[in-house]
Amino acid sequence: MQLSNIYSLFRKFPNIVTDTRKIVPNSIFFALKGENFNGNQFADSAIKQGCEFAIVNEEEYVLNDRFILVENVLTCLQNLAREHRRKLGIPILAITGTNGKTTTKELSNAVLQQKFNTCATQGNLNNHIGVPLTLLSMDEQTEFGIIEMGANHPEEIQNLCAIAEPNYGMITNVGKAHIEGFGSLEGVMKTKKELYDYLYDTNGVVFVNVENKILLEMLNQDQKYIAYGNSEHADSKAKFLQASPYLVLELRSEIGKLYVKTKLVGSYNFENILAAVTVGRYFKIDEVDIKKSLENYTPTNNRSQLLKTDHNVLFLDAYNANPTSMQLAIENFARLSMKNKVLILGDMLELGMEAEKEHQKLLDLLAERNFEQVFLVGKIFSRVNKITSYPTFKDTMEMISTIETFGLKNKNILIKGSRGIRLEKIIEKL
Q1: Which fold has domain 305-429?
Q2: Which residues are annotated as a binding site for ATP?
Q3: In the prediction, which pLDDT does 265 show?
Q4: Sequence-distant (≥ 6) Cβ neighbours of residue 235 within 8 angstroms
Q5: Where do the CATH 3.90.190.20 domains begin and end in the chain?
Q6: 249, 260 in Cβ contact below 8 A?
Q7: The predicted structure's pLDDT at residue 202
Q8: For 130-139, how does the pLDDT look when each residue is reduced to its tens digit (9 = 90+)?
Q9: Which residues are annotated as a binding site?
Q10: Paired residues of 126 in beta bridges
Q11: CATH fold of 3-71
């Protein structure tokens, strides 16, 4: 069946599902394949549970005319998303980066909602499947799209741009993450730059932190960009005031100084906030509305959260971790003017051959900062750690089984590690 025919079906039944546990009325099932599953095997079940049609790519699963055979289900999903994006014709802002892309996406969405009916990436749907699903969740009421783009191998950002066709873009920063897939920091930079390259070729606009020399060097000659930062060359500026525990900043605007008291922890979030401010200003959002949206934003999903339990104050940032974000989090925590500081740190995953070296660097940093207590969780830390005063556990469950013996009460505790370590499971014990 031609894409135009499938698009006509999508207009009638606009809910796309890839999981039979999430079927809703007026939906079409896409039988995606993975290393450990074959969606074709669930197509019949999807129809029986209420899907109007099922898109499959194995002829044996075509049982009647409600099963549509295509050459590649994933490619069909991506092409359908691109077609829908073109039909809508709305502005799309793409955000990628090693750290801060999700927070920047959430803050930008909060700001843009003051003027537009927006649709932004939900959760971690930022890959070759998630981006198409986000685009297909947009409808005629959507006035602005914000697409987060993740990558763990070369050319992934290029491919996501070919699907989403953004008009605007931002790289929050570039650091060491997913080295296992990229091979080197240079590989990370080259892949992130694919967003700049796409926008250069299509005459789009990029938002750039001009205090980040790496990002400036990645720009193409004569690239169209809007600058933010504290440089005199920045189009949008702000002043960092404090981060103890919440981040407070001063916006410098035409109407004077605006003090913004956020609910975000971590001074490293300053540039994420300023990025969202810059996006808002570019799209003519009122300064007072920008301030209101930033102050009302409450972080969720284990990112930059401050949680107060019956016994402790938790600085929770356990959704992701890489050498850059881990170092920033540790140094920010060290600067905070409070006592009884404790760190619970989990392994940084997907670092390949760099893993043990990067974990040792963190151990050296921790020793320099002389924290009261440090707990380490994960197989890599278990191999590398030689500091006997740092209790080390092979996984989160092992730490949970003994955590009560350490008397962690009336403490300020930073919790950070890669998502796969699942440090959030410790919260109920603290």
Answers
A1: Protein-Tyrosine Phosphatase; Chain A (3.90.190)
A2: 97-103
A3: 87
A4: 226, 227, 228, 278, 281
A5: 305-429
A6: yes
A7: 97
A8: 999 999 999 9
A9: 97-103
A10: none
A11: 3.40.1390
